[in-house]
UniProtKB/TrEMBL annotation:
GO terms for biological process: succinate metabolic process. The lineage of its organism: Bacteria, Pseudomonadati, Pseudomonadota, Gammaproteobacteria, Oceanospirillales. Pfam families: Sdh5 (PF03937). It comes from Halomonas cupida. Keywords: Chaperone, Cytoplasm. InterPro entries: SDH, SDH_sf, SdhE_FAD_assembly_factor. It comes from the Bacteria. This is FAD assembly factor SdhE.
């Protein structure tokens, strides 16, 4: 029982860390990243979760260009997760980037 409690605590700490790293200095990025994290991240496979964790280490200006579809990442894994976030935003009503 104690092991599962420890694992749950570790998972909760990881999730909080992901949440805070997903919060950015730009409101537009928060509107895209946080709903994706809250509603889709847990459904992703391990590779896509790893891609998301890598993505949020990028600079805000790069994330902004990618998530606003002004540019696409060159790296295929990164391009895939960016596309997933954009698709989720547009299909879920979180697509606040349409007017930007």
């Amino acid at each position: 029982m104690e092991q599962s409690s420890t694992a749950a605590s570790a998972a909760e700490a990881d999730r909080k860390r992901l949440y805070w790293h997903s919060r950015r200095g730009m409101w537009e990025l928060d509107l895209l990243l946080l709903p994706f994290l809250e509603h889709r991240y847990d459904e992703l496979g391990e590779d896509d979760q790893a891609s998301y964790r890598e993505l949020i280490t990028e600079e805000d200006q790069d994330l902004f260009a990618w998530l606003m579809r002004r540019e696409w990442p060159e790296e295929p894994r990164r391009r895939r997760i960016v596309q997933m976030i954009v698709d989720y935003a547009e299909s879920s009503g979180h697509g606040h980037n349409r007017g930007l």
